[in-house]
Amino acid sequence: MAIILALVFYLGIIPVRNRYPFISIIENQNITEVQGKIISNPKKTGKGTFYRCTMEIESVKGFLSANKKNNCQKITSQAKGRISVFIPAEIVEAHYPGKLYSSYSGPTGKSSGILIECGARLSFSVRYATMNSFDKINIVPAEPVFFVSEAKFIGFENNFFGQLEKIRGLSRLQFKRLMYAWDDSGGLLLALISGSGEYTHGTISEAFRNAGLAHILALSGMHLSFFAGLAGIVTKFFGQKVSDFFSIFVVLLFVWFAGLTPSLLRALLSTLLGFTIRKIGLAPTSLQILALCFLMHLCIAPHDLFQLSFQLSYASLAGIILCTKLFEPLFYHRLPPTIASGLSTSCGAQSFSAPISLSVFGSFAPGGIVATTIISPLVSIFLTVGILCIFLSLICPYLIQPLGDVMNLLYNCLVAPVKLFARIPLVEIK
C-alpha cells in the first residue's frame, strides 16, 4: 500500500489536497497586515537575509480594491489557513547573542521584545510576493508568500499549551546564548541539538554537504537514536522497563525542543512504532515498520510528501533495509566487522538517496560512504561530551569558559576530517 500510494501521489494521478488553504475576502496583493500564530521554527534562507516561517492566520488587513485611491479605507477581516512569511534577519535576530541586529527597536522606536518562535502570536506589516521576488529567497513555497517589513509581538496564548510553547521558545533562546559563549563548537552543537544553524559557519555547513554528511546537520533518526541510547545507558541499572520508558520520554523531549521536521517526524514515528510493537509482542520486519510509518506520516502531514528531507529520509532508510546485505560481501572478508557494517549501511543508504540528489542537485558525494562511517562516531562523542558540559555549565556557570575550550578542541578534531572528505570530487551530471 505504501508503494502504491507513493506512485499515485508522485506521478500526480491524485493530487495532495491542501488541508489549510489560505482564505480571505481581501485579495492577496491587497493585504498589508496579517495577524496569526507562528507554527514552525524560523529557518534561515540560503542567502541569509530572511528567515522563513509558516504562519497560521487569524485576521488580515488591507484594501478591498486594487485601486487604493478609490478605496482608501483599510478594512480588517477574519481569515484562515496558512501562509509562508519571510521575515528580515534583523527582526528575528533581535535577541540573538552576538548578532549585529541585537538593537532592533521596531516601528515604534522602542525595544520590540519580539520572540519569533513556534507558538508566538504576531502581527506583521507585509507585501504579497510576486514571482520576481523569489529571486531574493531562492525558493518557491507552496503556500502564499508574504514579505515582512515590520513586526509586532502579541504574545503566547494564555492556556497550558500556550505557556508550554513560551517555555520552549525562551529555553531555545537561552540555549543559543549559552552556545554562543562556546564559539564555533557551540554553533555546531546548537545545530545538532536544536536544528538552528545561525551560528554554524557557512564554510563548515558547505564542508558537511560536500563530504556527503548533510544528514548529520539535518535532525533525523541518527539524533533520536543517539538520545534514546544515551538515556538507556543512564537508566539501565533500573531495569529494562524503566530504561525503555525513560528513553521514549527523552526522545519526546528532544523532538519537542528541536521541533518537528519531516525527517524528524519519520524518525519519531519509527521509534514509537517499534516501541509499541515490541510491547505487544509482534515481530514485523523493518520494511513493514517503514511502510506503516510512511502511511501514518501521510495521514498526519501529507504536505511533507514533496519535501526533500522527507524523500531523502525514507529513501535512505529503505536503501539501508533493502540493500545493506547486498554490499556486505564486499567488505566483511577484508575489513573488521564494525567498519564493514558501517560501510555496508552507508552504501545501502546511498544506493537509494543518490538518485534523488542527482535529480535535484545534479550531483552527489560518493565520499559520504566512507565519511559517514568515520564521522558518525566522532559526532556521537562530540554530542555526549557536549551534553555533559551543558549540565556542568548550568550547575556551575564559572566552568563555562574552560568547558568551552574542551568543546572547541573536540570541534577541531571533528571538523578536520570533514574538511578532508569534502575535497573528494562530487559525481555530477549535466
Summarize the structure.
This protein has helices spanning 2-10, 89-92, 160-180, 183-194, 202-210, 214-217, 221-234, 240-258, 262-279, 286-300, 308-331, 337-361, 368-395, 400-422, and strands at 31-38, 43-44, 50-62, 75-78, 82-88, 121-128, 145-155, 363-364, 427-428.
Walk me through this protein's architecture.
By secondary structure, the chain is an alpha+beta fold. Helices cover 52% and strands 13% of the residues. The protein has 14 helices and 9 strands. The protein has helices at 2-10, 89-92, 160-180, 183-194, 202-210, 214-217, 221-234, 240-258, 262-279, 286-300, 308-331, 337-361, 368-395, 400-422, and strands at 31-38, 43-44, 50-62, 75-78, 82-88, 121-128, 145-155, 363-364, 427-428. The strands form 2 sheets. The chain has a 5-stranded mixed β-barrel with strand order 1-3-5-7-6. It has a two-stranded antiparallel sheet with strand order 8-9. A hairpin with a 5-residue loop joins strand 2 and strand 3 (50-62). Helix 5 (202-210) packs across helix 14 and helix 12 (337-361) packs across helix 13 (368-395). It is globular, with a radius of gyration of 23 Å.
